[in-house]
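User: Some background: our group keeps a shared notebook of sequences we're curious about, and every so often someone picks one and asks for a predicted structure to add to the entry. Today it's my turn. The entry only has the sequence so far, pasted here. Could you supply the structure so I can complete it?
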Amino acid sequence: MSKICQLTGKRPITGNNVSHSNRKTKRRFCPNLQTKRIFIPEVNTWIKVKLSSKALRTMDKLGSYTFLKQQLAKGFDPSIWVETKSTQATEAKRGYRRVAVTDHQGNKSFKITYEPEVVNDRRVKLSSVLK
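Assistant: Of course. Here's the predicted structure to add to the notebook entry:
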């Protein structure tokens, strides 16, 4: 997975580990990323984003809708997960389940089906959610 904040664009930077003897070795400074589900009441939807903790604090301060609008104005338009009522309903159907099948003669039989783990692949641009 990429270690880039979807809303601010923060990414890992490089630097040096400096030992006591002043020997330098390369290292990466990664941002503190969190994957969060955020409810936006203005558009009545849940989104799932990977963002830095600083972006999360700014979002708490300004409000989620205002912060997302600001980031769109700055040029950040990430692909995000959007959860709707239909995707939440299909999430409950994951795993093995028994399905009743009736043939053309009216005989009822059962078969076991498996719904895969990745059911909702609904990734859209943030600008299409906020409009």
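Suggested note for the entry: The chain has four helices and eight strands. The longest strand covers residues 33-40.
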